[in-house]
Structures are given as C-alpha cells and as structure tokens.
Design a protein that fits this description.
The protein is built from 14 helices and no strands. By secondary structure, it is an all-alpha fold. It has one domain (46-255, 264-311). It is globular.
C-alpha cells in the first residue's frame, strides 16, 4: 500500500499549476467591457453642455436646473420601483449623499450658471481637469495611489486640455471659471464615491438613489423658478431638457458607474480626458462654434495619454 501511495503522488502534483490559469480570460473580458461602459458614459456626458445650451433656449437657468433634476428623479424612482430595488445598506447612505450633492445638484447648478456667460469651449475646461481630480479623490478614499507612470500621463493629458481650453478664452479667469472650478470639485467627489459604491452595488442604483435623494432640493428650485422665470417650450429647449434630464442626469451615469466599478475609478476617469474634445466637436456641429487648428494636435496628445493610463499598473 505504501508503494502505491508514493506512486500516486507525482500524478496529483502536475494538476495544481492549472488552477490559477482559469481566471485570466474573464479578467480580460471584464477590463474590456468596463472600458466600453466608461467610454459610453464619456460620450453621453460630452453632449451635456450643448444639451444645456439648448435647454436654456426656452428655460431660465434656475428652471433648467430644477426641472432636469425633477424629471431625472421621476425616471430613477420608476426604475427603482419596477425592479424592486432594495434599500442601500446604512453604511452606503453617506456616500450616496455625496453623489447626490455632487452629481445631481452641485455640478448641474454650477455648470448651468457658468454657461450663462461662458462659451461651451471654455466650459469644457472643467471636464479636462475632472479626471485628475477624480483620481485624487479616489486615491484618498481607497488609500491606494496609482503608479508614477499613471500620474505622469494623466497630468500631461489634463494639462494639455486645460491649456487648450483656456487659450480659447485668452487665459483670462472669469466668474464663470469660478463656477466651473466649484463644479469640478463637487463632481469629482461624487464620481469617486459613486465609483467606489459601484464595486458592490449596481451602478444604475447608485445614481438612481443619488438622484432621488436630490429630488426635494430640485423640486423646490423648480417650483420657485418656473413661477419666476419665463418658459418658452421651443423644440430646442424640449430636446435639450429631455437629454440633460434623461441622459446627462441619469442614463449616462448608469453606464459610467458600471464602467468605474469594473475597471476602477482612476482608470475610468482618465477616459474622460477625451470628453472636452468631443464636446468641442458637438459645439461646432450643434451650436455653430468655430474650430481651431490646435484641435488635431490636442486630440493626439490626449488619446496617447489615455492609452498610457489604461495600461499603467496601479500600486
């Protein structure tokens, strides 16, 4: 019996190295699908500024802020009811409050006020800096800092976008720039918290609960604004409002948070470096703003930075 047992021992040994090989393919698919979801979110958000400009064609600034939030809350609440989504865990509510304050109240409020006096091109600067700010908030929350290569590529990409977009306004800071800076900070906090929650909660529920939590504030703003600001329901205004309420405020976040949950907040946020350039394209096609010769060069640098950040390992 002893001889037979010793002869069986070598047979069992070769089987053990095969165990860690199986997860490799799913991990690769997860990374690819996560990148795709995040990219869809970026494309969705790139229409937000033009959509807001269209909404302002018939709504006042405060009406646009309040109404978009109320409509998004109706959609989100209906989705939660239909799917019978459970209430979030008690420990998740503080993060959801930050998502609500940053993504469903602060960012729409401050960017809409900024667009009263700032062009779409100049307003895109907030999106250029947003990936870096989101990565910083994420590093603070998770206490995990991305690699030096990641930070270097992200810094170059963000700096390139900032220099380009500020040059469109001759580099002169305005009150609108202060609004945009505030929007950058609150949105980055909301992105980081939402991305962290999306690792253990479906991304669409994260933004749905955030939008619902913000509903009382947005409803109060809408009721006051609609009675004090003139409203003209032009075709542009209706289309713009439908987009910023259904996509910018809710639908875009569904795929965005799902992507962040799959590939991480830091990497997903770097895909947003391309968003200002996409916004500039839509500004030309939809709003008639002028293109500059610097766009192709900026696009090439930004895309190169995105490739580097996507491949860089985190520590």
């Amino acid at each position: 019996m002893t001889a037979q047992q010793s002869s069986l021992a070598p047979v069992a040994t070769p089987a053990t190295p095969a165990t860690p090989v199986a997860p490799v393919a799913p991990a690769t698919r997860t990374f690819s699908s996560g990148t795709l979801y995040a990219a869809l979110g970026v494309v969705s958000f790139s229409f937000s500024f033009p959509g807001t400009m269209w909404a302002l064609d018939g709504f006042g600034p405060w009406s646009a802020i309040g109404v978009r939030g109320v409509l998004a809350a109706v959609i989100a609440f209906a989705a939660l009811l239909i799917t019978r989504a459970p209430l979030p865990a008690r420990s998740d509510w503080p993060a959801l409050v930050i998502v609500a304050g940053g993504c469903a109240i602060g960012f729409p409020l401050l960017t809409t006020l900024a667009l009263q006096t700032s062009s779409t091109a100049n307003s895109a600067v907030v999106i250029g800096v947003l990936p870096m700010a989101t990565a910083v908030f994420s590093a603070i929350l998770t206490r995990r800092s991305p690699s030096k290569v990641f930070w270097a590529a992200a810094g170059v990409g963000a700096a390139t976008v900032v220099v380009y977009t500020l040059s469109q306004n001759h580099g002169v800071p305005t009150v609108a720039d202060l609004y945009l800076f505030g929007a950058l900070l609150v949105c980055a906090a909301g992105y980081a918290q939402g991305g962290r929650l999306s690792a253990r909660m479906p991304g669409w529920r994260v933004i749905a609960w955030g939008v619902v939590l913000a509903a009382p504030v947005n409803l109060a703003v809408a009721l006051w604004a609609v009675s004090n600001e003139p409203v003209h329901l032009t075709a542009k205004a209706v289309i713009g409002m439908a987009y910023i309420a259904g996509i910018s405020q809710f639908g875009g976040f569904v795929v965005w948070y799902k992507g962040m949950g799959l590939i991480g907040v830091a990497r997903a946020s770097q895909l947003q470096l391309a968003q200002p350039l996409l916004t500039l394209v839509w500004a030309v096609l939809l709003l008639g703003e002028q293109f500059t010769a610097a766009v192709p060069l900026t696009a090439a640098i930004v895309l190169a930075c995105i490739v580097v950040t996507q491949r860089a390992r985190t520590s």
